[in-house]
């Protein structure tokens, strides 16, 4: 026993380092095993997506746009990466390394770039088809009820390829931390990490976008699916409860705000079990908005938000809450103005190529950094899903949706070139009237609101369809036309009504909301309702002149924007939307 103990003390230090190395080896083995196990699970779910894509249940073009290049991704993982990893784990004792295998992944990351780039569009399409087509919805529900799906949504599974690359990055980082400096696998592993990390940043931004869309969907449901807010260009920023101070009565009323990058939704809580939680009272555009503290002796923590549509006096729950709201709103306003500024400047500098020269002379290209959003559809650009493209005919910077056409250009030896949709129509000689009409609708209300004879929210119903809230504008430049927008910041009008020749009926039908009136001409009947009788009379005064083809006067008001009455306080409780 004695000698044994003696030797033991001798080898003590040796055993210590040996155990350290073996636990480290064990950790490296565990990381490699985790890589293999997650890869197996990943391939199972890829196969599920691939099978659905190729089953023939979806129309071919829908598959291409929703499932993108999932088949190539599946093939690579199923037939190459997974078998390689399985083989390696089987011979780990003699070849303990994964860097060389993951390096094989790097040339295939292009496939992921493609998938991630298409992801936004895929999610929008999925929502679009599920909303519009009962058959499509049934197919999706059928897929989701399968055991292999693990009762998760199709969207969840489609996010997997987006999340996979960041997972490789994480595992590789762990692996490199545990890998001895002089290990033969170090060079390969570091090289792989460098390339995979770059790809992961793209995926991460897509994941953030997907989380934003998920949040928009939740809010959309809270608002009873009434407000059209689920767009990739809408970014949720903040929400919370506040009290609204009314001008007339002393008691404050509970309100809920949702702040986005381009609008503030001012909502009233609905006290109902299940169903929508809030009703939108006003949608205030960030364009032209200001926010400031208000010094209200009687009410602490108050601040004022003032927009084109409405001014609100709000009370927060604490000094900290107030500061949080003011900061968030101010930052949103600043970012919005910055983007708008660069957009205006870009348009100012454009030397328009005249229609006659279109395609015959190379245009001056607008520089990428001069614009932050597509110069045609106004969608904001980003690095992955909406990149900048130049129209080779007019030089505008547009997104892929707006440059999805090719046409032969004379200045480029009649070769086919990418052009924007407007140049495509002109060069193809498509009826200009169609282009004209589009131009009219695309004049944003912002362009008119400042110089309008009358503007404001009205309830609107066409051919006895359900009533909906619309932003109406009669511009000074076209005083015989009524423009209808979904919201004051929309780029495009929903429709226009040329007022000349319409008959005005100032009598409400039994089912109409209060303060309703109607415009009719042969078969077409448009119903409108104002927030108050007084506001209705102001609109009618203008419309009655316009239907005769004469130029209406701007109604005189006490300095407020003519159509936007801010005496909404008295209707707060009464008009609970229709």
UniProtKB/TrEMBL annotation:
Highest taxon of the lineage: Eukaryota
GO biological process: cytoskeleton organization; filopodium assembly
Residue ranges constituting the PH domain according to the UniProt record: 235-334, 451-548
FYVE-type domain mapped to chain residues: 368-428
Gene3D superfamilies documented for this protein: Dbl homology (DH) domain, Pleckstrin-homology domain (PH domain)/Phosphotyrosine-binding domain (PTB), Zinc/RING finger domain, C3HC4 (zinc finger)
Swiss-Prot/TrEMBL keywords: Cell projection, Cytoplasm, Cytoskeleton, Guanine-nucleotide releasing factor, Metal-binding, Phosphoprotein, Repeat, Zinc, Zinc-finger
GO molecular function terms attached to this record: guanyl-nucleotide exchange factor activity; zinc ion binding
Biased composition (Basic and acidic residues): 568-578
GO cellular component: cell projection; cytoplasm; cytoskeleton
Start and end residues of each DH domain: 27-206
Subcellular location field: Cell projection; Cytoplasm, Cytoskeleton
Chain residue ranges for the region called Disordered: 1-23, 551-578
Biased amino acid composition, Basic residues: 1-19
PANTHER family the record matches: FACIOGENITAL DYSPLASIA PROTEIN, FYVE, RHOGEF AND PH DOMAIN-CONTAINING PROTEIN 4
Designated name of the protein: FYVE, RhoGEF and PH domain-containing protein 4-like
